[in-house]
Design a protein that fits this description.
Blueprint: H1 5-8, E1 13-17, H2 21-24, H3 26-39, E2 42-46, E3 59-61, H4 68-81, H5 87-93, E4 94-95, H6 97-104, H7 109-116, H8 120-131, E5 136-140, H9 142-145, H10 150-163, E6 174-176, H11 183-188, E7 195-196, E8 200-201, H12 205-215, H13 227-236, E9 241-245, H14 249-252, H15 256-264, E10 268-273, E11 285-288, E12 297-300, E13 305-309, H16 322-332, H17 342-352, E14 369-370, E15 394-395, E16 414-419, H18 435-440, E17 445-448, H19 450-456, E18 463-468, E19 472-479, E20 487-491, E21 504-507, E22 514-515, E23 519-525
Amino acid sequence: MTNSIDEIEFADVIFAIGTNTTENHPVIGSKVKRAVRYHGAKLIVVDPRDIALTKYAELWLRPKAGTNVALVNGIMNVIISEDLQAKDYVKERTEGFEAMKAVVAKFTPERVEEITGVPAANIRAAARLYAKAGKASILYCMGVTQHSTGTDSVKNVANLAMLCGMMGIESGGVNPLRGQGNVQGACDMGCLPNVFPAYQNVTVDDNRARFQKAWGVKLPANVGLTIVEIMNAAHKGDIKGLYVMGENLMMSDPDLHHVEEALKNLDLLVVQDIFLTETAKFAHVVLPAASFAEKDGTFSNTERRVQRVRKAVAPPGMAKPDWQILSGLSTKMGYPMAYASPSEIMDEIRKVTPSYAGITYRRIERRGIQWPCPNTDHPGTKYLHRDRFSRGLGLFSAIDYIPSAEQTDKEYPLIMTTGRILYHYHTGTMTRLARGSMERYPESLVEINPRDAERFGIEDEKLVKVTSRRGSVTAKASLTDRSPEGTIFMNFHFREAAVNLLTNSVLDPLAKIPEYKVSAVRIEAAGA
């Protein structure tokens, strides 16, 4: 997030696009509701589904799945044509405006209505509401990123924020909501195929030289593979061994038939996790790990805040903290890691990660600190880009609309989109073992618009078979207007109806994120 969670409550306008905030990020969802209820904020919700936040929205824009780029271009078209942009900000703090403007000029509200299904009048209203705000915050999540054009969508919401001067101000900015515990910290530490800690590119000679000196090894200059690319390489036999930590590939990855074949093709699969997951059942070796409550360390949350995690109970059986497992394995393989405690690891992190340089265990004993924090006198950074962007000038991107990779046809006439529900988390590894969660939501449901159900002979609470070009699953139908006509919704928490048997593994060309949010499917009544 460019800004902080607490700032959301005091924004004049909140633009929430592709984020079912109350179910996926309930704490942040409460901030949004408080902003509307108690501080008079105006909320714009962009989502094909009728999510809980629509009840609080001044405007609900309901685009067809996969059309976010066109919609945001339409909003910017209105802002520019009505001369509502932050002219001084654009002139002094950005570059590339004219190229972006030329592309956006094609996206009149009327044309965008044809693409997205959102009425032109609502597009104009949203543009005026956002542009005229004193402080406007953009929130987004996987409804923006999990598309073959996800990177384009992210760049476009940044375009919108810069166009109206909302970057580098309190209660403004562009705020991606992280979906899993410490995913922000993992990225900060270089758990990405193209960067070292603090997002220092592996292809830059000076970066590589610094880490070679710090670690006393020679490091490769080439960019690695992402998860789906790894599965493809394993499927072809180019990758022979795989080490999986806290990731349930056999539930979370697209096209699970392909994933299963890839895992079976490995010579060695090691899985390190706290439960025996669907993926661990394919493993040659399973390493039992400690949970968050069984170890010391730090988590970095969605607002860049580095916080202490403290051991509350001892790990069961042979389970160990991740750092001890990795250190022991590394030492056995010939690279000694002799850390005595997580605090020693944090000391090393501070030396090689400039944005963490001022963060010590002593300083975060009671309250976490937001990076960047370059030295121990620095209080941390509440919001980014206050006086300048990290690259100097903010760069507008000229983004044209590209349809989703998979379209409907006579054989597959509906769009399936996927996501989480409030009572379960990710692949259900933990929450499906919790009695309360299972009591509230015990089985997978397929949300179907009643008009689509009538068209295809589907009855409420009866089994329905959902088929894509990759496979089929069966689950119980839930007839609801929450899903728009022509679109069904499924969650991916239940192995009995593993929705990623259906999803498309086509990737965004830059971020390499699969297009989970748009898959063409058909539905039919299933036997008992």
